[in-house]
Amino acid sequence: MKRNLIALAVLSATVAPLTAQANPKVYGQINLSAEAYEQDRDGSVNDQEFTRMQSNASRFGVKGEAELTGTLSAVYGIEWEVTADGDDISRLSASTTTAVDTNGDGKADSTDGKATSTSTISNGNRLDLTQRNRFIGIKHQDFGTIKMGKYDTYLKLAQGKVDLFNDFAADMQFTIAGENRINNVIGYESPKIMNTQFNIMAQTQDTASKATNGNSLSIVHHNEESGLYLALAADMGINGSSAVFSSRENDTMRLVGSYKIADLTLNALYSTSSAVVETKRADGKMYDDAETAYLLGAAYKLNDIVFKAQYSAAEADDTDGLAATANVEKTQATIGADYNFSSKTRAFVWYTMQEETKKVAINNIETNILAIGMETKF
């Protein structure tokens, strides 16, 4: 009997780590905020003022890594966004027809090279479980990871934690181009060498009507000991978001820097983006709809409280061919604070002011949002 117990103990000690490694991990977060929203439009009677409950990219997913050999493993992950407030399409009448976010990239129109999906939504009905990242791949401990599926471009991921209000209405995507999650990609992520990693992805051509096959790459240096984060990234021919202009096929560059000194973190980002295919405007000239943007931010940790401030701006490089109602500049200024109950739960408050400057001043828009909320991760 004693020998049997010893044998069982040895077997359990051997099998348990393998079983734990193979088991998938369920994870997620619920992030909700109550907000006061106000929008003023120059020369218009369509001003808005109301309160709302917002689900800020609440999500859940499953991910894992299964050992195949001593140096090789299979990696996988699948994630969905959920409408934690119970209603992600608010203030719609019973027969409103609107473009909705059916691919989980946080935007109403498709930015993945597919046709825009338009749905008729009755008040009280809603979309739930929208797609986020999902992939499968092979990881080698010495040579890096190859994975395929749908996930954030490496230019988007290059932001690191620079966006202090990520996932909120004050997200930097209001002024910074390139916040894209795209379909039909295969990517390679190198191992870290001297705190530096290289990443590259390519998109297959799956749509006959718009054969989008863009590429995305980045080089990232992250030295946690020194508090330094640097990244240089590019999207080439990616059909996705811009800031000043509408969604289109873009060439985008992004330079990111962050430095942590004791309890103070300083962030900066610079971006350029232009259309791959130039457009012919009413004056007969060709325009590439180029835009330039930047972001500056700072966070200071005081015990369990983190104070945050961020400013970003984007502007059209050439406004000659723009229509009177087109944006020539967007700015966003946000302040806020987090109270961390634990490493997984926080309460937060923030206020943002967004301004859209049009070519003709009478079309300008100013939006103010005050939010208070809570997030917990599992």
TrEMBL record:
GO cellular component, as recorded: cell outer membrane; pore complex
Keyword GTP-binding: no
Endpoints of the signal sequence: 1-22
Localisation: Cell outer membrane
The Porin domain, residue ranges: 7-357
GO terms (BP aspect): monoatomic ion transport
Transmembrane segments: none
Residue ranges of the region described as Disordered: 98-124
Main location: membrane
Pfam families, per the entry: Porin_4
One function term, GO molecular function aspect: porin activity
Subunit field text: Homotrimer.
Protein name: Putative porin
